[in-house]
Amino acid sequence: MPDRAAAPADPAIERLNALGPEEFRAELAQCLDIDRWVRALDGERPFRDRDALIAAAGRHAAAITDDEVAQALARHPRIGQQAAPAAAGGTEAAWSRGEQAGVTGAAKDDFRAANAAYEERFGQIYLVCASGRSGPELLADLTARMANDPAAEARVVAGELGKIALLRLERLLDRQ
């Protein structure tokens, strides 16, 4: 009869499970700095594996409220703009710069104008999961979203925050 050994442990999950509450919250806030989301994940520990953590993170991100969107947007740089100097050296700022790498050169000027129009219409910055997308793709997305009504746009932004959170959570786990 074959030996049914347990699946190999995931050092990243083991490390996160072993962190104290404050350290865990600091780690996860790099992915999505929404206190309810971070506390909810902390409350579900220990996670048996990566899939369980990702599933829980997705579930809790799906419940992002309009107030949480507003709080999160206050900490995000505009597409094509660097993170605030106070945060420029942090992991979250580095991830943001990498995610926005498709917006370069003349595209930055186009984004300045498009961002201004978006902010005038919706009263907030344009937020999108920009990872792996080119400047022209992002500009086309922004332009298309200008047709949304404010309530629909709020739900789109909440969904984009969720995508960003899961992408960053994967990065957090992969760097362990």
UniProtKB/TrEMBL annotation:
E.C. number(s) listed in UniProt: 4.1.1.97
Molecular function terms, GO-annotated: 2-oxo-4-hydroxy-4-carboxy-5-ureidoimidazoline decarboxylase activity
Residue ranges of domain Oxo-4-hydroxy-4-carboxy-5-ureidoimidazoline decarboxylase in the record: 17-170
Keywords: Decarboxylase, Lyase, Purine metabolism
Pathway terms, separated by semicolons: Purine metabolism; urate degradation; (S)-allantoin from urate: step 3/3
Domain of life: Bacteria
The protein's name: 2-oxo-4-hydroxy-4-carboxy-5-ureidoimidazoline decarboxylase
